């Protein structure tokens, strides 16, 4: 998504990824429809006009039942303008409907682990952008030494959906091919190098394919060139966790600011602790600032905004795609002039400024542990500790096979510096009741939990206003032992 700084909760949702002045003006055509105010009112028909004078809005027209098919409808007679129905077309979601909406893109997947038992992945995606820019994938394939490995990936797109759509199909196979060639006895550095190469090679292919299409002899405006360059014009973060059940090891690779957090069980204290398996790659990460300073000597003051953490207007420092941070200025201007590309960034001197190369971590895990993977839409409103606490309470309730009692609590917002209302998820507002899917439970509590009005309002919020209420949110919870099996 294009990220403008917008607050949700006490946090800032960085609406990825470009500053507002980086976007192009677009013209959209809208249609309206409405139901009659009562059973005696005439039917209301909505017409869409592709062009109205000076961009004026659409109008309600009322059809008469005795008109022939295909005729232009006539306006019914109203005693006065006040009798003309004027109602909001936005659907209001009550709690039952909001729960159903949240679950539209929820699923649970099982995978085999050693000893004949099974692991489980709970997934949910809730869109804010239209079309949604988040994607995800889960698959089992070859890992290090040929071991059967679980791959779980989340791809948070921005400036469009095309790049994340490519990653959904291609990143796991790329990584599986690369690490599948590494011997089981290989050192960790060799395994990490194979993962990094897979990420880099896929991004290089995306960019090279786009460049070849842009440099072809196709006439300006050709549809096939526009389609071919799309995955390079938009961009996407990538978060990929790889679980080797033979070695009980999780390797996590991150490009961008999606995040993986381990819920690590401690038998000594009898509870879970949160441990980050990745570190957000933004201008607030000093390691990233140092890396950019070294790669672009003398430019750091111009390219990284220390207040917003943005790199030449973008909220992350690594990503797939994003040719405006990678291609030469001449190549970008040519694409803009001939195939509707986007203009180069201001203060653009020594590209590339971005890379798709991930940082990789390796962690031994036990069957009682779990991993939460999520796009930044979740982490914008929920801390690592709160997320692990939520899943921990979900597991306890599931073991008891009984939801927690949920009081209906009033919403409470703080107002951020930019004037937008904000909130943070907190255990005191948890609603632990979605015992079939831990990812659904996490997103519900990120959006309000027991504060029912806040939750229903967050679901009711419509595009594009929803971008100031919630981000696209995609969450996966990986259990190394199926929680359903522990209740039997």
Automatic annotation (TrEMBL):
Q: Which CDD domains match?
A: PP2Cc
What's the superkingdom here?
Eukaryota
List residues of the PPM-type phosphatase domain. 118-480
Pfam families, alphabetized: PP2C (PF00481)
Q: Which GO terms describe its molecular function?
A: [pyruvate dehydrogenase (acetyl-transferring)]-phosphatase activity; metal ion binding
Q: Name one GO cellular component term.
A: mitochondrion
Which key words tag this protein in UniProt?
Hydrolase, Metal-binding, Protein phosphatase
Q: Which SMART domains match?
A: PP2Cc
- Membership in a protein family: Belongs to the PP2C family.
What protein am I looking at?
Answer: PPM-type phosphatase domain-containing protein
> What's the source species for this entry?
Conoideocrella luteorostrata
